[in-house]
Amino acid sequence: MTRLLSGAVLAAAALAAILFLPLLGLRLLACLVAALATREYLGVVDTGRAVAMAPIVLVVVMACWWVSDPGRIVVLPVLLVGLAWLGAEVIFRGYTVDQAAVRFLAPWYIGMPLGMLAAVQALGGPRATLLLLATVVVSDSAQYYTGRAFGRRSLAPAISPKKTVEGAVGGLVFGTGFLAAAGPWALPLAGRLSLGLLGAAIVSLGICGDLFESRLKRTAGVKDSAALIPGHGGVLDRIDALLFAVPAYYLYLRA
């Protein structure tokens, strides 16, 4: 019941933000979510060395803010800032390349996709944003229920033993079908074939994003990235699939 109630509250809040917030408000909200997710990410990937979170969170928020402006499609400034930061941590702070690279990943893994999500609203309007979120929700739900009903073969036993091949196929079929069917409502100029391909890409990338975060948590020996959302874990747990799926959708809209 707790999971259901908190899920309903999250869904209502997301819907209200998409429908009523101006672009500036959405960009600020994306930066807030990016900051929270980054803190959780660092807590998961830290291998025992104390991490100065503030500079990393700041870079992630900067990346999110920069990319969320639909007029900016050049990511070179974000890359240059990240590379400078990576070099400084290795040369001046004594981190190994592996340790610094984990932190270097944060703007690309969290900041830029969330910035792209805000930019999607500017490029395609609320309907385009709702279509993306609904596709991810439909896919996740289909994976769960088809996996429970028909799941026999594990998809990635070393990462997430409960995920099955049958569940992934169910998510792919229903998620792709949903986007192909509902796509013209949000993207009237798009063809059915391209929408179907887009749906397959979004679902496949979403599954990869889910498994990616599961690998991070399994390596760290934790069940959830945080306990911020009752019954759901942390912010990163809720957006893991979306982080991988958004860039493909964003590039589709730009094209």
Write the layout of secondary structure elements.
Elements: H1 2-20, H2 23-45, H3 53-67, H4 76-92, H5 97-150, E1 154-156, E2 160-164, H6 165-186, H7 192-220, H8 235-254
If you had to describe this structure to a student in words, what would you say it looks like?
Helices cover 78% and strands 3% of the residues. It is globular and about 55 Å long. The chain has one domain. The protein is mainly α and 255 residues long. The protein has a two-stranded antiparallel sheet with strand order 1-2. The chain starts with a helix and ends with a helix. The protein is built from 8 helices and 2 strands; from the N terminus they run αααααββααα.
